Amino acid sequence: MRLALVLALCACQQKSQPQAAGSSAPPPPGDASTARAVPPGPYVVAYDCFHSDMPFGKGAQTNNRSYDLGARTLTSLSYALKGDEDEHPPRPGDVDPRKTPPTITVITPEHAAQIDAAVVRVLAGGHFEPENPVPEGTPCTLTITANGKQLFTIEKAYTKQADAVTALVQAL
């Protein structure tokens, strides 16, 4: 108990000491100085992934999701190209997966609120590192827009880092 009290006291004293002029040390995570003004929504969150089988094979996979929090809709488009479909147009009578219309579904108000809260935490600021895929992996880009203006974008192939961006991807 005493040890916890001493540690808390030391932490408070360190936090209250002013940062030296010219110091390049960043403020601690969660510090109010890292918070930014959050632009108003409604937000659209897109999570777009694309993988090419090259150079080990032919084909590709696309999986795009877009959450419009104002309209409370999810627009998703997923398809796979096999073989040389990505190089040649389909034969007459074949269905071109690239021309498949997206699926639009309604998301619940609770789910929209959960995503909206996660978006606000991301837009409030922080230090977020991209999580790029391994060379054979699938790159995914997370983008947040509002009123037609892009507010945030990051490469997020994985959700290994415990940060607000990971929480947002997991909320999707």
Chain-wise SSE layout:
Layout: H1 2-16, E1 43-52, E2 59-68, E3 73-82, E4 103-106, H2 109-123, E5 140-146, E6 149-155, H3 164-171
Antiparallel strand pairs: 1-2, 1-5, 2-3, 3-4, 5-6
Helix pairs in contact: 2-3
Structural descriptors:
single chain; 172 residues; alpha+beta; Mago nashi protein; 6-stranded antiparallel sheet; 3 helices; 6 strands; globular; disordered N terminus
Characterise this structure.
- By secondary structure, this protein is an alpha+beta fold.
- The chain has a single domain (36-171), classed as Mago nashi protein.
- Helix content is 22%, strand content 28%.
- It contains three helices and six strands.
- The chain has helices at residues 2-16, 109-123, 164-171, and strands at residues 43-52, 59-68, 73-82, 103-106, 140-146, 149-155.
- The protein has a six-stranded antiparallel β-sheet with strand order 4-3-2-1-5-6, with helices on one face.
- Helix 2 runs antiparallel to helix 3 (164-171).
- The longest helix has 15 residues, at 2-16.
- It is globular.
- The relative contact order is 0.17.
- Mean pLDDT is 74; it is low at 1-33.
